[in-house]
């Protein structure tokens, strides 16, 4: 999809907001120069420092080494919290540190030293690696752990203090290029109150525990204490070893991967420090692979496929474990010239919340929605040379620093030694929504890009009220309706989904997310992206394979170990399989429509069901009233609207039943709270939209005056409200009480009377008692207004007509009132005392045509009995009825009234 025509002079913000959190030169080198100047006893040190980042521990501490002026190599740590540098250890000669890790107590330092890496006499020597374990607090023993002819990575486990045993100990992972992983349990002791030293260091190598063999790729996740690795025996198999606070570890996941046989010519280490002495060329890294997880139980395995220059396409796969499927994307590069280094086409995978960004600098950017992945239109794809994240270096030199933070991710530019926190730019996504002129390519559809940007803004970034206000302003800007989707419906559904998407991953398939998927004929532009092909493969193999291996805790039960993240992930995968087998598991708002229609057609006599629905409504409106205390711009929630009240309560009922049926794990109390908040948020969203457009067009009290014709501003507000009505009716969603009254008022002001009546006849407008009463009192009795009032009275249901007719001071309504009153009164009198007048019992007898004298006498006699038969009637007494009957008699006899 082409974002904009080549050469278009449009200033776009970048997709990522980058904030530099660490700079090796600024935060380390400048400090090191001062230290070296002090060592050399000079005012300013001008020599080469040669500082290099070695590792980033899970607490954010950055380990680095530098060559000292005295011919030594030193290892230090930068603390991001204190912004201070600390010297950890000094080697008495210059060495090549290829891997380094520090235990949490900062008492042990593990290092791997690369030796004899330079060619001598044209002969390339065997690369040897010496792995040391050093006591540094205070400096005491140095123990050799490995001396092998391959690369070695070292990494300490970091457990929380509260979960540690009283005995001092540290645990070290040692990972080798030969394809195995050893775990060292290092017992420590405290001497003289402050000295921490190893217990029996000579026995360390004999007590090492082999936990992994035959790996070809490995990734360490320090925040979650997980080790992911890939083995290849006929097929690629991803496994995960989970380390627990009590030093227990277990293989908790096995997942087959469909990858080419030559994917890993050499062992690939991910998130295990940075080896500046490894001589392998970037081109030899055919596949780049990473695993990303989320606390609530999602796991994404991302990897690219080896580049095929003949086909000129980039292929990458996202295995969505929590969704039980893998999606492979083929992105055609077209006729663009490919770079000489194929590694430059390796995609950079960046996790941002539940999105995965796939980025190839200068070619394309694909922001993949891993929670609503069924349709391509909910993921944003941009291409062209204008796609730029603002990174100085190519994707080969950029590393993702894994973090538990969901709001942002850290990116390390290894060549410059800079770390940036990165988060999506709301400004850039808003520009995609608003940039009508940016889409000049006739072969490109702007709608999918806007749809994806809108959902990203509303769901992922929508907790910011100011951002929501900007989106509503965009909705109010007179945007024409898109052909492929209703943007107001998308705004409503996405905003509602936001309030509950973090409750459980399974809500992804149970709650409405978009109106697009409910369409019978989905536009082709939303199903396909030009130049991008997507294939989906379901995971049929057993994903979880819990083993009781490498255990130091005896017979602990599987249930007690499989908790937290893994419990959520297993539940999500099992529930996903269940929901795949259920036809139409997603809640459709149309589920309410049939019962709502039955409710409207019935007489709505009080029953246990209607009482239950009314209780639901009261819960919702009480919450809305609490939210709306400071908002009195638009007169909503201030009238009785029986239809909308019924729909509000019914929506709560249907949604609650749906979630209880498919997701009982949440619990009834939590589900009840969720659905009440859900419907209350809907009413609040509509109120918020109305307030925004109300303030934009400076609508005041005059907008409710029916005697004035509508202005251009009134028409704009009416048009926007009508679009809201169409969106809500299309989804069968309730509207706030008072919405129909306000819309009808604006319709009378803006539409010709005959058009207004047609809107009513076609059920586009709903007549409320509040509106009709205002119409009868506010409009004068001119010929046009009289005709309109009579037309409306004719369209009212009988119960409402009996109430409304009292509000209009007009001879005909007065006659109607008196006729209805006399008819009711005589019926009541006939039931209690009998009623017999000669010749009056014949069929078709109409009491309103009784002789005037007898009628007046009978009413007087009834009044003298001591009861007040008029107490429930408004503005009715005997004198009024007598005058009305007299007037009616004159009219019937053809006499003119003097």
List the helices and strands and how they pair.
Blueprint: E1 16-23, H1 24-40, E2 52-56, E3 62-67, E4 73-79, E5 84-91, E6 96-102, E7 108-115, E8 128-136, E9 139-148, E10 152-156, E11 169-176, E12 181-191, E13 195-198, E14 209-212, E15 215-221, E16 226-232, E17 236-243, E18 249-257, E19 268-270, E20 289-294, E21 298-304, E22 313-320, E23 325-332, E24 348-352, E25 355-360, E26 364-369, E27 380-383, E28 398-401, E29 409-413, E30 418-424, H2 426-434, H3 446-460, H4 465-476, H5 487-498, H6 524-527, E31 532-538, H7 558-561, H8 565-581, H9 593-601, H10 608-627, H11 642-662, H12 668-696, H13 712-731, H14 739-750, H15 753-761, H16 769-778, H17 783-795, H18 798-804, H19 811-833, H20 852-864, H21 878-893
Parallel strand pairs: 15-19
Antiparallel strand pairs: 1-30, 2-3, 3-4, 4-5, 6-7, 7-8, 8-9, 10-11, 11-12, 12-13, 12-14, 15-16, 16-17, 17-18, 20-21, 21-22, 22-23, 23-31, 24-25, 25-26, 26-27, 28-29, 29-30
List keywords for this structure.
898 residues, alpha+beta, Methylamine Dehydrogenase, Chain H, five-stranded antiparallel β-sheet, five-stranded mixed β-sheet, disordered N terminus
Describe the model:
- The protein has about 900 residues and is an alpha+beta fold.
- The protein folds into 3 domains: about 20-420, 7 Propeller (Methylamine Dehydrogenase, Chain H), CATH 2.130.10; about 590-765, no CATH class; about 810-895, no CATH class.
- Mean pLDDT is about 80; it is low at about 1-10, about 435-445, about 545-560, about 835-850 and about 865-875.
């Amino acid at each position: 999809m082409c974002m904009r025509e080549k050469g278009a002079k449009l200033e776009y913000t970048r997709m990522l907001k980058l904030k530099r959190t660490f700079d090796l030169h600024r935060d380390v080198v400048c400090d090191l120069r001062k230290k070296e100047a002090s060592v050399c006893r000079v005012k300013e040190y001008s020599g080469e420092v040669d500082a290099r980042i070695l590792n980033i521990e899970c607490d954010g501490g950055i380990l680095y080494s530098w060559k000292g002026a005295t011919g030594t190599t030193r290892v230090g740590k930068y603390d991001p919290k204190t912004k201070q540098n600390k010297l950890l250890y000094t080697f008495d000669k210059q060495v090549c540190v290829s891997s380094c890790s520090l235990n949490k107590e900062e008492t042990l330092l593990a290092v791997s030293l690369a030796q004899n890496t330079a060619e001598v006499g044209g002969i390339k020597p065997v690369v040897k690696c010496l792995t040391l374990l050093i006591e540094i607090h205070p400096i005491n023993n140095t123990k050799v752990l490995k001396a092998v002819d391959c690369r070695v990575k070292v990494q300490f486990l970091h457990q929380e203090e509260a979960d540690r045993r009283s005995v001092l100990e540290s645990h070290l992972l040692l990972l080798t290029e030969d394809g195995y992983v050893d775990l060292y349990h290092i017992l420590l002791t405290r001497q003289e109150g402050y000295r921490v030293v190893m217990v029996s260091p000579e026995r360390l190598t004999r007590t090492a525990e082999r936990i992994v063999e035959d790996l070809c790729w490995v990734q360490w996740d320090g925040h979650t204490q997980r080790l992911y690795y890939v083995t290849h025996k006929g097929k690629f198999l991803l496994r995960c070893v989970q380390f627990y606070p009590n030093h227990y570890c277990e293989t908790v996941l096995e997942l087959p991967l469909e990858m080419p046989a030559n994917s890993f010519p050499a062992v690939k280490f991910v998130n295990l420090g940075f080896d500046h002495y490894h001589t392998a060329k970037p081109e030899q890294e055919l596949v780049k692979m990473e695993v990303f997880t989320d606390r609530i139980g999602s796991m994404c395995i991302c990897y690219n496929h080896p580049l095929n220059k003949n086909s000129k396409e980039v292929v990458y796969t996202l295995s969505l474990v929590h969704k039980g499927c893998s999606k492979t994307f083929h992105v055609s590069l077209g006729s663009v010239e490919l770079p000489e280094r194929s590694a430059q086409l390796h995609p950079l995978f960046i996790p941002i919340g539940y999105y995965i960004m796939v980025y190839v600098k200068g070619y394309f950017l694909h922001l993949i929605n891993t929670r609503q992945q069924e349709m391509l239109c909910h993921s944003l794809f941009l291409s062209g040379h204008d796609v730029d994240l603002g990174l100085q270096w190519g994707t080969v030199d950029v590393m993702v620093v894994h973090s538990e933070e969901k709001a942002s991710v850290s990116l390390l530019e290894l060549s410059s030694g800079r770390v940036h926190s990165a988060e999506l730019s709301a400004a850039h996504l808003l520009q995609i929504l608003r940039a009508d002129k940016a889409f000049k390519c006739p072969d490109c559809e702007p709608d999918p890009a806007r749809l994806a940007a809108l959902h990203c803004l509303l769901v992922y970034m929508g907790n910011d009220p100011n951002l929501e206000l900007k989106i509503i302003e965009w909705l109010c800007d007179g945007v024409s309706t898109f052909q492929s989707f209703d943007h107001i419906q998308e705004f409503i559904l996405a905003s509602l989904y936001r309030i509950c998407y973090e409750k459980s991953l399974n809500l992804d398939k149970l709650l409405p997310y978009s109106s697009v998927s409910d369409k019978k004929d989905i536009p082709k532009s939303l199903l396909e992206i030009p130049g991008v092909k997507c294939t989906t493969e379901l995971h049929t193999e057993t994903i979880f394979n819990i083993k009781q291996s490498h255990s130091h805790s005896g017979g602990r039960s599987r249930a007690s170990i499989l908790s937290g993240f893994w419990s959520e992930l297993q539940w999500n995968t099992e529930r996903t399989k269940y929901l795949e087998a259920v036809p139409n598991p997603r809640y459709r708002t149309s589920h309410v429509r049939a019962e709502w229609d039955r409710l409207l057609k019935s007489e709505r006599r009080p029953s246990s069901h209607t009482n239950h629905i009314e209780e639901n409504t009261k819960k919702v409106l009480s919450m809305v009233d609490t939210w709306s205390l400071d908002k009195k711009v638009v007169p909503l929630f201030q009238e009785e609207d029986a239809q909308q009240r019924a729909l509000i309560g019914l929506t709560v009922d249907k949604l609650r039943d749906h979630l209880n049926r498919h997701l009982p794990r949440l619990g009834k109390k939590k589900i009840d709270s969720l659905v009440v908040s859900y419907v209350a948020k809907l009413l609040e969203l509509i109120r918020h939209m109305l307030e925004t457009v109300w303030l934009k067009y400076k609508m005041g009290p005059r907008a409710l005056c029916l005697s004035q014709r509508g202005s251009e501003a009134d028409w704009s507000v009416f048009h926007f409200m009508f679009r809201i009505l169409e969106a809500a009716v299309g989804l069968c969603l309730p509207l706030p009480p008072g919405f129909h009254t306000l819309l009808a008022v604006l319709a009378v002001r803006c539409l010709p009377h005959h058009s207004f009546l047609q809107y009513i006849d076609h059920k586009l407008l709903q007549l409320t008692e509040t509106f009709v009463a205002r119409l009868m009192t506010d409009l004068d009795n001119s010929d046009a207004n009289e005709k309109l009032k009579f037309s409306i009275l004719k369209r009212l249901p009988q119960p409402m007509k009996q109430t409304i007719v009292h509000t209009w001071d007009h001879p005909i309504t007065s006659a109607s009132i008196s006729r209805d009153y006399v008819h009711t009164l005589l019926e009541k009198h006939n039931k209690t005392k009998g009623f017999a007048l000669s010749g009056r019992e014949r069929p078709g007898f109409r009491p309103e045509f009784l002789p005037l004298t007898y009628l007046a006498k009978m009413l007087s006699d009834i009044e003298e009995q001591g009861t007040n038969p008029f107490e429930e009637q408004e503005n009715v007494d005997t004198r009024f009825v007598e005058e009305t009957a007299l007037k009616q008699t004159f009219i019937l006899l053809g006499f003119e009234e003097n």
